Amino acid sequence: xxxxxxxxxxxxxxxxxxxxxxxxxxEATFFHRAGWLDILVRTxxxxxxxxxxxxxxxxxxxxxxxRMRSLLFGDALVSTPFCVYGGVAATTDAARQxxxxxxxxxxxxxxxxxxxxxxxxxxxxxxVRRTGHATFRKAIVPDPxxxxxxxxxxxxxxxxxxxxRHLVAGxxxxxxxxxxxxxxxxxxxxxxxxxxxxxxxxxxxxxxDCEYFVAQQHGQPVAAVQSFYFRDEVLPxxxxxxxxxxxxxxxxxxxxxxxxxxxxxxxxxVDFGRSAxxxxxxxxxxxxxxxxxxxxxxxxxxxxxxxxxxxxxxPRYRLIVQSWRRLPFAVANLIGPWAARQIG
Length: 344
Hints:
Oligomer: single chain
Number of strands: 17
Mean pLDDT: 93
Strand content: 25-35%
């Protein structure tokens, strides 16, 4: 077995070969796609380490990683920054073991605090594991009424109110509008917003597999969500709204409409992504009819004594959140992109 590196200046054919493996590997996710290498380098200026294993001339495993030097989380080798999933995707145990060992060796050579794999399922009993986050998935079908009945009664009533109020939701090409709506929500939550160019770069890199969706009330955009498409899945990822879009009806209606739209595109699963246990996002996703599936984020400690603190409810986080909320909106948007690069 041979290990190779996919670099930012590699021929297009090399990235296409990587993506062909990802498209068919059961363990792979949208966040294993080669396009994230471009995002990490050009948008956020992180140093990538994209490794893949070859046996018999065929790729049998991939491991996307990047080195992050963060004021908040320290120096780390992460699979993968800005993505909710990562770690090794392989078709053989030998490939997985070789790539995991290569990550540990690289972490030692670089002298990072830790190596972080954002795994969907537990992989390493000898690494530190944190399970305070879950992902939320549910089946969707081409029939809008069936999708509505799949939402529990309380949220289903909110969707029906949205229908009665003649809310409208659908795809848009106005990326800047969606970024602005997202920025409003991030400021309200006390979190830095990523750079505006990031939203444009996602479309540039992933094309039709990155889509923006906006909800309007009386012709005014009030909420938006950005989604990824992968195989038969749709992954709503970045959302946001202004105060008039936080009425209890707009978001449930927008997501129901998105489910119907995605199902018409061929999606059969909606993946609402990561939320911390007990958080508002956790509860909202459960009320849409999803059950939590615990994520297994695992850490190989190198120079660090413990993995980073990632619980948004911790006292340290609460202080940061409260301070960020007090910033004027314009100031938060000005320094937010720099701060967001530190978080990943």
